[in-house]
Design a protein that fits this description.
Blueprint (H helix, E strand, L loop, with lengths): L1 E8 L6 E6 L4 H11 L4 H4 L2 E5 L2 E2 L13 E5 L14 H5 L1 H17 L28 H25 L5 H6 L12 H26 L6 H14 L6 E9 L2 E10 L8 E6 L6 E6 H4 L10
Parallel strand pairs: 1-5
Antiparallel strand pairs: 1-2, 3-4, 3-5, 6-7, 7-8, 8-9
Helix pairs in contact: 4-8, 5-7, 5-8
Length: 299
């Protein structure tokens, strides 16, 4: 028996509806969707389907009650910190790299990279930030730093849109507000940021275009956007899960955070206690994670 499955591919605006057999697995569906997105078999294993905030396992089957599925790059490759060196994914599979940029860019615009609200976790404010360096800095200092970071990221997205001929340079400069992440700023803070961007972004975009337009490709500047996003907002690339921790008979609510690999750091599993976002405990490295036995409380 077949059923219609709604699929959101992040490298395009339209949503797809595909007729699938109900016993089709996510792994089998991934092969089809990767072909549609021109993602090679080499990079295909980095992708997975997400539904309503939950990652679906490869063995999960399509069923009549399945909601919209979103194809996302889940497993980030370790990368160089230097912006002068091309990312590994860009070298391995340019199409997968383009898809990853589209994914992060869409999340950035929607306010999911850096947001005062955490979708689906508004009642758990102690999760935000999970691991955020400088969390105790003065609010004014953090806002100044955030605005400088926004100029670098917003300016790059503007330059990318001009180079990819999505929009004309004159028009892109008129639409500064549309490049600011959703729900990131309050009314006055947003007005101040828009004023700062309008005063500086034209010269910044001109500088970027002068440097990158002769190459006739926006790939390098997209690579820089991804690296800067990870530098400014590292927790966006982490995965976190609710858990309970038994501390001498006292059960505590904690968050388990899986941090992605980088040039000089392997994947780690970290525990964050409620109300102590600045205090973390490393539970295991990637080598140790492979040997973790999950305890089933029902057994």
């Amino acid at each position: 028996m077949a059923s219609d499955v709604t699929l959101e591919l992040l490298d395009r605006e339209e949503v797809m509806t595909v007729e699938c057999e109900q016993d089709l697995t996510m792994d089998q569906l991934l092969v089809t969707m990767a072909d549609i997105c021109h993602i090679s078999p080499v990079a295909r294993g980095l992708f997975a389907f997400k539904q309503a905030g939950r990652w679906l396992p490869p063995s999960h089957t399509v069923s009549a009650e399945t909601g919209a599925l979103q194809l996302r790059l889940r497993y980030k490759m370790p990368d160089w910190r230097s912006r002068d060196r091309a990312s590994n994914l860009k070298n391995v599979d340019p199409k997968a790299f383009q898809y990853f940029y589209s994914q992060v860019r869409k999340d950035f615009d929607c306010g999911l990279v850096c947001n005062k609200k955490v979708a689906g976790e508004k009642d758990q404010k102690w999760w935000v930030p999970i691991i955020q360096p400088g969390a105790r800095d003065k609010r004014e200092d953090r806002l100044i730093e955030l605005n400088v970071n926004m100029l670098e990221l917003v300016g790059r997205n503007m330059a990318i849109d001009v180079m990819d001929e999505v929009i004309d340079k004159k028009e892109v400069l008129k639409n500064v507000k549309s490049y600011i992440p959703k729900d990131l700023y309050s009314g006055l803070e947003k007005m101040m940021l828009v004023k700062m961007l309008q005063a500086n972004v034209e010269g910044y975009v001109d500088k970027l275009l002068k440097a990158y337009q002769p190459t006739m490709s926006s790939m390098q500047i997209k690579d820089e956007f991804l690296k800067l996003t990870e530098k400014f907002f590292p927790t966006y690339f982490c995965e976190s899960f609710s858990a309970q921790y038994d501390e001498g008979g006292r059960v505590l609510e904690v968050r388990l955070v899986v941090s992605p690999p980088s040039e000089d750091k392997q994947v780690t599993l970290t525990m964050v206690s409620r109300g102590e976002v600045d205090k973390t405990t490393t539970v295991a490295t990637i080598d140790q994670i492979c040997n973790i036995a999950v305890h089933d409380p029902t057994s």
